[in-house]
Task: inverse folding
């Protein structure tokens, strides 16, 4: 299990990096990694990139004072080794920052729990755009961290399912005896499976509810009321009683919005399992409704098979297997492209840094008073030396590199990646549709034919 938190750094980037690189905390600097910068000069590298940011590279709501971001990833005590924690941190940094932002990553081992510190520049090296820190980006960090923990066999924090609940709903759940919660649950379940307000009323009636004020008109009454089986008094569908999502107007809107947001040429409905749920045996009306609903779902499912020129389970399995191979191939190619793009982005950063600071180094070497010149232009000379050293390690002569050509290659890779990701998502959606078709037909026909659509083994991380 890993807990994550992130905050911005507006000043003293150098001190923050110095703190996380403390030899006492990182086992004499064994657990330190970096990308597109050196830990010793990272603050200067960040400043170089920040200085290239223009006003149009900021979006509304972004804090222009942010120079870097500090992300902490803490693990459960005793659950992970130092080496594995550092490896997970590097995977998180590379997945999150996509080879565009310079960063320094360290793993601290001096506390009772192992934890990673990731400090990355607030501006990327390619387009010089500012990192957008918001709730959405934080949940993406949480999601990536949890995925990596699962891949490494670590525990994750399970969501409690209540994030986003309105306060009045939470208060109502807390204060009533539980039967209002059951009404809400039945309403939510009904909304998920029906396609119109009229179907909703029929299903709730089949569930045993007595309802009044259902008509949505001036003569229909202000509130809809629900009286469950075994209760003497009804409950109003009002914001005060059940919550504002359970008024009749809101219920109708939720059903219509669901229909508008999923304009798919196939049904996402699943065959209702009436055998294992005792409520269908106890309620004849509900069982009849389910039988009618299942017949309609089965008919739609079969039409979907024919529309895809699929006539039996063997053809269905072969189609799923073919799509799985396409999905795996697209995913493998994307991962390979990402590695190449990350390496190319680093080269572009160092070539730019080399060229823009070369004149300062040339003047320094020819200066009659090199100490004085160094004091005045130290940051430029350090950036030049760092870039030259990193490019030499990669066997690259920056003097003969075509920067425009490098950027063009990067953009070509980016376009190719977007195409592959789009194909991957489309293929993945098609697989899910076909798997749902199979599940529905098996359940409705009450058969379990031999399956051949086994998931392809792959050690490549998914997009």
Result:
């Amino acid at each position: 299990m890993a807990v994550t938190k992130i905050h911005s750094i507006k000043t003293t980037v150098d001190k923050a990096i110095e703190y996380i690189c403390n030899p006492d905390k990182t086992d004499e600097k064994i657990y330190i990694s970096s990308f597109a910068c050196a830990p010793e000069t990272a603050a200067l590298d960040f400043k170089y990139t920040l200085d290239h940011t223009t006003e149009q590279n900021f979006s509304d709501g972004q804090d222009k004072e942010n120079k870097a971001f500090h992300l902490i990833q803490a693990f459960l005590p005793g659950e992970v080794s130092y080496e594995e924690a550092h490896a997970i941190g590097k995977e998180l940094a590379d997945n999150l920052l996509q080879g565009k932002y310079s960063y320094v990553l360290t793993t601290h081992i001096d506390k009772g729990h192992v934890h990673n510190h990731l400090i990355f520049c607030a501006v990327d090296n390619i387009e010089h755009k500012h990192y957008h820190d918001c709730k959405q980006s934080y949940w993406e960090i949480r999601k990536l961290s949890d995925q990596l923990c699962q891949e490494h066999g670590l525990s994750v924090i399970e969501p409690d399912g209540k994030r986003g609940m309105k306060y009045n709903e939470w208060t109502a759940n807390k204060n009533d005896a539980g039967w209002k919660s059951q009404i809400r649950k039945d309403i939510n379940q009904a909304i998920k499976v029906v396609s119109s307000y009229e179907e909703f009323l029929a299903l709730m009636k089949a569930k045993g509810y007595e309802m009044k004020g259902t008509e949505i008109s001036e003569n229909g009454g202000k509130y809809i009321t629900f009286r469950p089986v075994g209760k003497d008094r009804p409950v109003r569908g009002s914001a005060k009683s059940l919550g504002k999502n359970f008024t009749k107007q809101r219920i109708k809107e939720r059903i219509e919005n669901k229909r508008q947001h999923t304009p798919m040429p196939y049904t996402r409905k699943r065959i209702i399992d009436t055998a294992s749920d005792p409520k269908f045996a106890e309620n004849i009306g509900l069982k009849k409704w389910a039988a009618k609903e299942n017949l309609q779902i089965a008919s739609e499912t079969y039409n979907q098979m024919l529309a895809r020129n699929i006539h039996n389970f063997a053809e269905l399995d072969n189609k799923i297997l073919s799509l799985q191979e396409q999905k795996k191939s697209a995913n493998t190619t994307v991962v390979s492209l990402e590695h190449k793009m990350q390496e190319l982005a680093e080269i572009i950063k160092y070539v730019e840094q080399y060229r823009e600071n070369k004149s300062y180094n040339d003047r320094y070497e020819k200066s009659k008073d090199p100490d004085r010149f160094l004091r005045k232009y130290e940051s430029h000379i350090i950036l030049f030396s760092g870039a030259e050293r990193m490019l030499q390690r990669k066997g690259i002569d920056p003097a003969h590199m075509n920067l425009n050509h490098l950027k063009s290659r990067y953009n070509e890779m980016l376009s190719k990646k977007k195409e592959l990701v789009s194909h991957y998502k489309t293929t993945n959606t098609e697989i899910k549709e076909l798997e749902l078709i199979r599940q529905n037909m098996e359940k409705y026909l009450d058969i379990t034919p031999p399956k051949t659509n086994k998931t392809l083994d792959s050690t490549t991380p998914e997009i």
Notes: The chain has a mean pLDDT of 84. Residues 313-366 form the longest helix (54 residues). The radius of gyration is 30 Å. The domain at 2-151 is CATH 3.30.930.30 (BirA Bifunctional Protein; domain 2).
